[in-house]
Amino acid sequence: MLRLVAEGRSDRDIGETLFIGRRTVTTHVSNIFNKLGVNSRSAAAAYAVRNGLV
Q1: This prediction's pTM
Q2: What is the phi/psi pair of residue 44, to 5°?
Q3: Which of 9, 20, 40, 51 could bond to 24 as cystine, CB 3.0-4.6 Å?
Q4: Phi, psi angle pair for 29, to nearest 5°
Q5: Are 50 and 6 in contact (CB under 8 A)?
Q6: Which domain holds residue 27?
Q7: Nearest to residue 6, comparing CAs of 32, 50, 42?
Q8: What gap in Å lies between CA 40 and CA 51, rounded to an integer?
Q9: How far apart are CA 18 and CA 12, in angstroms?
Q10: Greatest CA span in the chain, whole angstroms?
Q11: How many CA atoms lie within 13 A of 48 on its CB side?
């Protein structure tokens, strides 16, 4: 899911891609932010690129 966030996809688009609800996506994205210690999509994307996760 971090890859999809890093690609700039919306919660709705991620949900459609993964066949899950938008609210579930929101929860997962929030959990990713907490685990990475960031508070925005751009910060999460930068973290992923910097650390070779995407």
Answers
A1: 0.88
A2: -65, -40
A3: 20
A4: -65, -40
A5: no
A6: 2-50
A7: 42
A8: 17
A9: 10
A10: 29
A11: 19
Number of domains in the chain: 1
Count Cβ atoms below 10 Å from residue 25 Cβ, excluding itself: 23
The CATH number of whichever domain residue 18 belongs to comes to 1.10.10.10
Closest Cα partner for 36 from 51, 23, 17? 51
d(CA 9, CA 35): 20
Distance CA 22, CA 16 (A): 8
pLDDT along the chain (54 residues), means of 10: 95 97 96 96 95 91
Distance CA 20, CA 17 (A): 8
Amino acid in the structure at residue 35: K
Tell me the one-letter amino acid at 9. Answer: R
| pLDDT score of 34 | 97
